[in-house]
Design goal:
Length: 643
């Protein structure tokens, strides 16, 4: 083992040694074992032998003691003698040496000249053949300073226990930055900008608060680094992280944030249905608005529904930017009150479904005027009845009069259709596809209803028509349709009465049939026909044929005589009974001429035959009688007293 000869220590700086003694006393008071003062070398040697567990502070400063290879250290440094004796010291504390302590935290080792130390700084100064190297050590409780005292000087020769070295290590660099994480992926991409001037703090071996971008030199160790959250921004990375800082290295912490955005609007009663809030239109408070969708990172965004305030206003605040599909802002329609949307305008809304806006929200945006217009909807109802009462006389005007009378049957399972235009979006009043063309059936009471209808302020805004199956015709309205307007929230439940009559399938024949089929006329039919006033002497085809062939529109009496002949033959042939009902109300003047809306066929025949040769009738009256017979001959006016 390499031996190092110690020079004479006489002449050492007395001040340093006195300070050393004072420090030793202070350390003892700090909780360590009481300092020992040795008056002789033998006494000092015996103390070392009595404490084999003593451990000297390591005589180098490049790394913690735990990382020192002691065998390697001995081979490099050798065992040196504190008093210059030419003999080996007892290695009672794993390593021997001389320590000179000065005041404060700065302490100096006095080491033999020529021994190479792994130290952070070059030797400070030579002194009496020694190199002085400044090192820092922290003495913990349980550390003992042993002092050897001669007649004139005191030496701290050993430190035993468990000292913790605080060696000089070059500082590391802690860099804290913040960036605008526009795509919310938690990473600083090339097109994303840095956010400077935001508050951050770190704590650990050292603690401090500052602002980004923060670049500081700190002692090596593990630090907790946190950012200060700012209202209106969302952290896309953890707001506090642990980061180890190594000597002579830079450790960087990056905090990602994204600026939040807002969406707001109002809800109002759009009484004129134009999709624009007018000054005289009231707002709607207490209505539910919802938001759904995903943010730009693809994560679902859920917010509790909010309600419009007393000003009809709502607002979703602090929203992250949306994905390309955008957020859906939806209204919830009031129930059971029937309300329908009027805005948004495009597409035209469905009155039975709430409306939604799609808002592609950008970072930091403040999207306003996401407004919902609504109007109270109305309804139109009516009923369908069989417009004939079998208990009344056949000439009673209440039969087939187009009005519902007591005792008349109500008809169920009949189809009604609604068509027309509403005032929705009056700037473009085209037909409201999907709304106005609707069909309903009458219920067991014969009632139909079209509900959830937008208002219309024109007289013919809505038209309601009934489907007319084969074998039926209308008594009211004449063409089977009624039109009406509808105010906001109005419920029309009167005045929409639809009267109907059924048309039995009598196999009647027209004038043209009898003209072309003389063989169908029997002698008995000729005999009966010839007894009527209008056909006296018409006992064969030769006399009857001119009545059919010479009828023309110029001579109305000829036309009437031909229709009368055809109907008489229909009755004589049994194609239609004389007591069949005929509806004449839709023939102008028919009610006045025959005494009722629905009359027996026999009555029509009697009236016409009794007035022959109709010289007292005007052309209009003749035409009325002709039309009644013509309709009956074509099967169009024959009705049944019951459905």
């Amino acid at each position: 083992m390499r031996r190092a000869v110690w020079p004479d220590l006489k002449g050492w700086n007395r001040t340093i040694l006195l300070v050393a003694a004072a420090v030793a006393a202070l350390l003892a008071l700090a909780g360590g074992e009481a300092s020992a003062v040795y008056n002789s070398e033998a006494e000092f040697r015996n103390a070392i032998l009595a404490h084999p567990s003593w451990a000297v502070i390591p005589q180098w400063a490049a790394m913690p003691l735990a990382n020192v290879n002691k065998t390697e250290l001995r081979s490099k440094l050798g065992i040196f003698r504190p008093f210059g004796y030419n003999e080996d010291w007892v290695d009672g504390c794993n390593r021997d040496g001389v320590l000179v302590v000065q005041s404060g935290d700065a302490r100096e080792w006095a080491v033999p000249h020529g021994i190479l130390w792994a130290a952070p700084e070059p030797p400070l100064r030579p002194h009496l053949g020694y190199d002085l190297v400044q090192l820092q050590y922290l003495f913990k409780p349980g550390v003992t300073l042993h002092v050897f005292k001669t007649s004139s000087q005191s030496y701290i020769s050993k430190v035993c226990g468990n000292p913790s070295p605080i060696v000089y290590v070059p500082p590391g660099t802690l860099s804290v930055k913040k960036f605008d994480d526009t795509n919310m992926n938690g990473q600083w991409d090339g097109d994303e900008v840095e956010l400077a001037g935001w508050g951050v703090c770190y704590s650990g071996p050292e603690s401090q608060c500052g602002i980004t971008r923060l670049v500081v030199a700190v002692s090596p160790g593990t630090y907790s680094v946190s950012e200060e959250l700012v209202a209106g921004w969302l952290a896309t990375t953890p707001t506090s992280v642990a980061r180890r800082v190594r000597s002579s290295h830079t450790s960087t912490v990056q905090f990602g944030n994204v600026e939040l955005a807002d969406i707001s609007g109002i809800k109002w009663d759009d009484t004129n249905c134009d999709g624009v809030k007018d000054e005289d239109e009231e707002v709607l408070a207490g209505w539910e608005i919802t938001l759904t969708g995903r943010d730009i990172a693809g994560d679902e965004v859920t917010r509790e529904p909010i309600f419009t305030d007393s000003d009809g206003f709502y607002e979703f605040k602090n929203l992250p930017p949306s994905d390309t599909a955008g957020y859906a802002i939806s209204e919830t329609l009031a129930d059971p009150e029937p309300w329908g949307p009027t805005a948004p305008l495009d597409p035209i809304p469905d009155p039975v479904a709430p409306q939604s806006y799609t808002v592609v929200l950008e970072e930091g945006a403040d999207v306003t005027e996401v407004d919902f217009g609504n109007v109270q909807l109305g309804s139109i109802s009516g009923f369908k009845f069989y417009d004939a009462n079998g208990d009344l006389p056949p000439d009673d005007p209440r039969n087939g009069n187009g009005s519902y009378d007591e005792g008349e049957l109500l008809l169920s399972d009949w189809t009604f259709r609604l068509n027309g235009k509403c005032d929705l979006h009056s700037h473009a009043p085209e037909s409201y596809v999907g709304l106005e063309e609707r069909a309903v059936l009458t219920d067991a009471s014969g009632v139909f209803m079209f509900s959830r209808l937008y208002p219309t302020h024109v007289d013919d805004g809505y038209t309601i028509c009934e489907d007319m199956p084969e074998g039926w015709f209308c008594t009211w309205p004449p063409d089977g349709c009624l039109s009406t307007h509808l105010d906001e929230g109005e419920e029309i439940s009167f005045g929409l009465e639809f009267g109907n009559l059924s048309n039995p399938p009598f196999d009647v024949r027209t004038v043209g049939y009898w003209r072309n089929h003389p063989e169908a006329i029997t002698k008995a039919m000729y005999s009966a026909l010839s007894k009527l006033p209008a056909f006296k002497g018409v006992s064969n085809w030769k006399k009857l044929q001119p009545i059919f062939t010479e009828a023309n529109a110029v001579d109305m009496t000829a036309m009437l005589r031909a229709q009368l002949a055809a109907m008489e033959l229909n009755v004589l042939a049994g194609y239609v009974p004389a007591d069949a009902w005929v509806y004449v109300a839709h023939i102008p003047g028919g009610v006045e001429l025959f005494g009722g809306n629905i009359v027996y066929l026999a009555r029509i025949l009697d009236v016409v035959e009794a007035a022959y040769p109709w010289e007292a009738w005007s052309r209009n009256v003749q035409e009325t009688a002709k039309d009644a017979l013509d309709h009956a001959n074509n099967g169009g006016s024959l009705v049944s007293p019951t459905p």
